[in-house]
Amino acid sequence: MVRIEQRTDMRVGIDAFSAPPPGRGGPTGILGFVWAVWPWMNWILPVFLVLHGFIGSVGGWESLMLLVGSPVIVPAFGLLGSLPRFILRRRGHRTAPGVIVPLLFLNWWGWVTFTLTMEGSGDNGALPSMLRMFVTAPLARDYEGTLFGGAVLTAVAAWVVVLVLACVLKPQPSQQTRTWSIAAWTSAVVVPALLIGVIVLGVSLTPQQRDSAGFTVAEVAATPLQEQADRARENYTETQERASAVRELIAPDGWTVSESGFTGTPTACRIADAECYAFAAEFAVPSTSGASDLESIVEPLRAQGWDVEATSRLEATDAQGYTLRIEVVRDDIYVEVTSPHWWGYDYDIGEVIGDREPLDPARVYRFDEWPELGA
After folding, report:
1. What pLDDT, in 10s, does the model give residues 257-282?
2. What is the pLDDT of residues 237-251, one digit of tens each?
3. Cα distances (Å, whole numbers) of residue 308 to 210, 288, 314, 323, 367
4. CA 291 to CA 161: how far, in whole Å?
5. Is 277 helix (H, G, I), strand (E, B) or coil?
6. In this structure, are residues 163 and 97 in contact, taking their beta carbons and an 8 Å threshold?
7. How high is the pLDDT of residue 2?
8. What's the whole-model pTM score?
């Protein structure tokens, strides 16, 4: 019996001596899995960033620039991502510390998010992001831009915190592994779920954007086309009346028209990712027939509610979102008023309103006359 007890004691001592220190065992569970895939993620994510434009077929000039810079971009980000893990290994870690795992998920999903929400840049303007290929419902561009900026900040902040923790964390005792494993599994589910929730929120908020009349996208979409056309006529008349009040300050007669009706797609429509329209009214009068000294009409314009900026030409805006431009070009004075935007598809509305005669550049209008609205 004595010999058995001695051999048992000796065996326990050997096992205790040969057992790996806390936190230095082989990778196990989700902490071990994260530790194992960490090196791969450091390189996969920069490669995904460089190639995302070609993968999604939405690449523009920025995709070409990323591809040209890839010999620097991929190694730089890959090595930066590897730095915290290298420090942890030097400090004796052989599995991912539990406190770092949620931060790694934030960093990785931040990379994925800002890559998916990165818009392309083409010859004719911005190109849709990869996210828009997967989300078929409208998503406001300013919301997507906020998501992009938030993802960049999240990825950078998470990496900085991981780097700091890697410099101070000691290998954790094995009894803490279970607690941190639960936290790691929770973050593995919560972080992507949070991202999906933010996207769903953006999709749900996009139809609630309001136009200059206070209507939401959803409300206008549910409005019959005839009613939308009636509103468009009222909006057109208001635009022309504002232009008329300005034209009266310059000349009572002798006006010719160069633009009157629906204008090109407003920037607000592209930002909101919704169909909308605006009106433009541009008239010209010979400078010999009107007040060629534009300074003389600044105060009357301000009395009408215009916030005037006087430079080489007069530019102004008002509280309702209308913009005004007045300038002298050669022997003519040009007045252009552009309306704010309203929800609605100008093509469908124009179909209801009907066609009109082409604008006659030789026809002369009084200050209170203008062409009728037509498609």
Report:
1. 999 999 877 777 878 888 899 999 99
2. 999 999 999 999 999
3. 26, 24, 7, 10, 21
4. 65
5. strand
6. no
7. 42
8. 0.72
Q: Which domains, and CATH codes, for the chain? A: 2-208 (no CATH), 217-353 (3.30.2030)
Q: Which residues, at least 6 apart from 78, have a Cβ–Cβ distance to it below 8 Å?
A: 42, 43, 46
Q: Which amino acid is at 275?
A: E
In order of 249, 256, 283, 334, the CA distances from 362 in angstroms are 22, 7, 12, 15
**Predicted pLDDT at 290:** 56
Report pLDDT for 11: 38
Type of residue found at 362 = A
Distance CA 191, CA 34 (A): 15
What would the pLDDT profile of 48-69 be if each residue is shown by its tens digit?
999 887 776 566 778 888 888 8
CA proximity to 289, closest of 251, 326, 244:
251
CA atoms within 13 A on the CB side of 80: 14
Q: Which amino acid is at 361?
A: P
Q: What are the structure tokens assigned to 163, written together?
A: 């780097």
How far is 87 from 36, CA to CA, in rounded Å? 15
Find the DSSP H helices in the chain: 2-18, 29-55, 61-68, 70-90, 101-116, 131-134, 141-168, 177-205, 217-221, 225-250, 267-272, 298-303, 346-353
Q: Which amino acid makes up residue 205? A: L
Amino acid making up residue 273: D
CA gap 227, 331 in Å, rounded: 42
